[in-house]
């Protein structure tokens, strides 16, 4: 490993794991917002100088039956985001919290969203989950991986829960410059081992910190194991919570990420991926794309002209039945 120059200027992040109420009314959404407000107040009082407080996925709504989420969906900006913005500005912190966002098309399902507020209460980043956890989550997928400037020179991106099971969202964020990948989640048993594996993999392969904040408790569907953690850019867990509600502060050094990306020779995954074999083929290696899955991503074979992209190649190795709302309701929640 290359020696990475030390830096000053830690970003102090507080992770909060709790059990949001599965809201079936606006009053219960307000109850969750009150919990968020109380945790932020505690974090600021307990950890002077804290920069950011991060909450789990579905922190304002909980995870209720999809029809309730449809009713609890909010606009951006809107009454829910206004309250979250005030929490951030009142306490002078960066706040990461969730919403269910109304779709621009009222005929379509909402988005599973996550917002980053700056200390002035402005929305610095709005993310719509790109990979809903099918078939349980019937949300409209997002189409973009935004990155924003954060405290202490960080570049922030969000990947929501199941997004982190896939390598592409984190890689997209890293290539856009993200040094801290925030993963708010509602991860449940029996995938507690997968939780650690995917958090560590996304950090290591992208030379980035992963701040993974999970839920605890139970709802009508699942039991959630917590284990919120921060993973450094070498894949090491530098701090981790247990399975109970609470909060923890972790200091991270995002400038080390920038240094590692610039200074490393070996294990510089972001460079090596686009400069394959530069030792054998100097000076830049082979820079063509060898991965057919990415070359063929949006091509549709003629015999599948009415089908969505990738249906035909995916059908060769995976499921052949198109998913839909009717299937989700009838067949339950098998992963």
Automatic annotation (TrEMBL):
Could you tell me which PROSITE patterns the record lists for this protein? CN_HYDROLASE
User: Which UniProt keywords are listed?
Assistant: Hydrolase
User: Which residue intervals define the domain CN hydrolase in the entry?
Assistant: 11-254
Give the EC number(s) under which this enzyme is classified.
3.5.1.49
Q: Does the keyword Mitochondrion apply?
A: no
Question: Alphabetically, which GO biological process terms does the record hold?
Answer: putrescine biosynthetic process from arginine
Question: What are the recorded GO MF terms, alphabetically?
Answer: formamidase activity; N-carbamoylputrescine amidase activity
SUPFAM superfamilies from the UniProt entry: Carbon-nitrogen hydrolase
Q: Does the keyword Nucleus apply?
A: no
Top EC class for this record = hydrolase
InterPro entries, alphabetically? Aliph_Amidase/BUP, C-N_Hydrolase, C-N_Hydrolase_sf
Tell me what this protein is called.
Answer: Formamidase
